[in-house]
């Protein structure tokens, strides 16, 4: 009889446990049984005062009957709905913090629950409604289309916000969990010996297969969403996917690293990423008096926005470079202007000694280009960046080499798509910084790209 064996096991635990510092308390313990075996369970455990129940919470989930599980799940979802509504209120004044709290913390709570409870996707419908009807409108300060809501549920590497639809992730989360823990389960059942190496291998394999399957689903969803959008928005979203320019969204808003954005900056970054009309734009440009639109803000050279963005990125590169190479000069002069001619001289953005060759000055010129400008929208973004890089070389390369230096163009788009030369320099600097900071290359590279992304927002 199983209950007799369990009681024998408990008596041994009560006898031997104190020697190892474990003191079982039966009145605080639960015995979970099916209803038809309650009477039998009371025969063996009634004298101990153990709570005999049909279901009970265990390790973040529920063991037992469906009624207990449904009640537990309903209460948890209701709590998360309230949390999402509170975050929606916070998003009106602190959108970046609210988004990070939902995507990085709160979402992980129901993700864990989905890994330990089977067939629970339908219970998350109220939660998904709260995200769609309360959180997203507060985050963007406006209404969203169905296509946008579907897009935002994709991972950030597929141009989404990484806020998963909880009604769709439940089955895959539970399947991945069962596959990853099957070695432990079999060992507990007595069907095999436990091996930590086999367990870790099962976890790794389950994660890999799950990510591969979810990526394939995300690609199919992205293709279907893109088919409903205008060509301009398709172009912008594919640039995010191919250029991997969404790193600023997944970065914690740390004030010490200058990653915390003002509400208007964060929303403008989202608008630029998804080609949405920013909220609360002024009617006229204060630089030239023209009608003020997102496109005009990116292109107008009189309002000061273009040069401010350029200088922010230049200063970010200079600050990072100064932590590796000893001599970093801002706006080095290649050719002096002369009073007797109309030649204005030649000035670049940065001079860094020892980047490519020891004691040889490497001169950099930064260009931030709007690849969606009317004059560029008929060309591929990478082709536009390449043309800009070649133009920079024609202007500066010979003059720089005449003074025995090297020239590197640092060209990128307004939304962070890097030209190959800029990307090569970032990798070179990340390698040097990883040695100095004693950090893995991947961490250092991610940090540099995040700094650049925030400088351009």
Description:
By secondary structure, the chain is an alpha/beta fold. The chain has 16 helices and ten strands. The protein has helices at residues 2-16, 38-45, 66-91, 95-116, 125-140, 146-152, 166-180, 182-189, 196-226, 231-243, 263-274, 294-299, 305-321, 381-402, 420-437, 441-456; strands at residues 30-32, 51-53, 55-58, 61-64, 328-330, 333-335, 346-347, 350-353, 361-369, 406-413. The chain has a four-stranded mixed beta sheet. A hairpin with a 7-residue loop joins β8 (350-353) and β9 (361-369). α7 (166-180) runs antiparallel to α9 (196-226). It is elongated. The protein starts with a helix and ends with a helix. The model has no long low-confidence stretch (mean pLDDT 89).
Which key features would you list for this structure?
457 residues, alpha/beta, four-stranded mixed beta sheet, two-stranded parallel ribbon, 16 helices, 10 strands, elongated
Topology, pairings included?
Layout lengths: L1 H15 L13 E3 L5 H8 L5 E3 L1 E4 L2 E4 L1 H26 L3 H22 L8 H16 L5 H7 L13 H15 L1 H8 L6 H31 L4 H13 L19 H12 L19 H6 L5 H17 L6 E3 L2 E3 L10 E2 L2 E4 L7 E9 L11 H22 L3 E8 L6 H18 L3 H16 L1
Parallel strand pairs: 1-2, 9-10
Antiparallel strand pairs: 3-4, 5-8, 6-7, 8-9
């Amino acid at each position: 009889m199983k209950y007799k064996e369990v009681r024998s096991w408990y008596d041994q635990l009560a006898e031997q446990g104190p020697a190892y510092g474990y003191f079982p308390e039966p009145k605080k313990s639960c015995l979970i049984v099916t209803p038809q075996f309650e009477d039998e369970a009371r025969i063996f455990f009634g004298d101990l005062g153990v709570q005999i129940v049909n279901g009970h919470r265990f390790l973040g989930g529920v063991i037992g009957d469906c009624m207990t599980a449904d009640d537990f799940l309903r209460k948890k979802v209701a709590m998360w709905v309230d949390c999402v509504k509170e975050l929606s209120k916070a998003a009106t004044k602190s959108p970046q913090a609210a988004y990070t709290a939902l995507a990085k913390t709160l979402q992980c709570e129901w993700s864990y629950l989905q890994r330990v409870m089977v067939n629970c996707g339908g219970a998350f419908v109220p939660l998904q409604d709260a995200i769609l009807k309360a959180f997203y409108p507060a985050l963007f300060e406006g209404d969203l289309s169905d296509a946008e809501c579907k897009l935002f549920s994709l991972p950030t590497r597929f141009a989404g916000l990484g806020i998963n639809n909880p009604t769709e992730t439940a089955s895959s989360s539970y399947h991945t969990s069962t596959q990853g823990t099957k070695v432990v389960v079999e060992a507990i059942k007595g069907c095999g010996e436990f091996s930590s190496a086999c367990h870790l291998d099962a976890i790794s394999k389950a994660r890999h297969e799950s990510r591969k399957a979810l990526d394939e689903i995300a690609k199919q969803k992205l293709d279907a969403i893109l088919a409903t959008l205008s060509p301009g928005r398709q172009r912008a979203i594919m640039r995010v996917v191919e250029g991997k320019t969404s790193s600023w969204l997944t970065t914690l808003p740390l004030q010490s690293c200058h990653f915390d954005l003002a509400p208007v900056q964060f929303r403008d970054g989202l608008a630029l990423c998804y080609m949405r009309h920013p909220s609360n734009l002024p009617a006229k440009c204060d630089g030239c008096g023209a009608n003020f639109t997102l496109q005009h803000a990116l292109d107008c050279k009189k309002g000061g926005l273009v040069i401010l963005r350029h200088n922010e990125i230049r200063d970010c590169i200079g600050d990072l470079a100064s932590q590796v190479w000893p001599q970093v000069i801002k706006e080095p002069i290649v050719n002096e202007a002369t009073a007797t001619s109309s030649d204005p001289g030649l000035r670049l953005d940065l001079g860094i000694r020892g980047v490519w060759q020891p004691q040889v000055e490497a001169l950099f010129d930064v260009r931030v280009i709007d690849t969606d400008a009317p004059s560029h929208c008929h060309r591929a973004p990478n082709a536009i960046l390449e043309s800009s890089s070649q133009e920079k070389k024609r202007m500066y390369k010979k003059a720089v080499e005449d003074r025995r230096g090297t020239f590197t163009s640092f060209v990128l788009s307004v939304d962070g798509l890097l030209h190959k030369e800029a990307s090569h320099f970032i990798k070179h600097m990340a390698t040097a910084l990883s040695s100095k900071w004693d950090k893995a290359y991947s961490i250092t590279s991610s940090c540099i790209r995040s700094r650049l992304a925030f400088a351009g927002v």
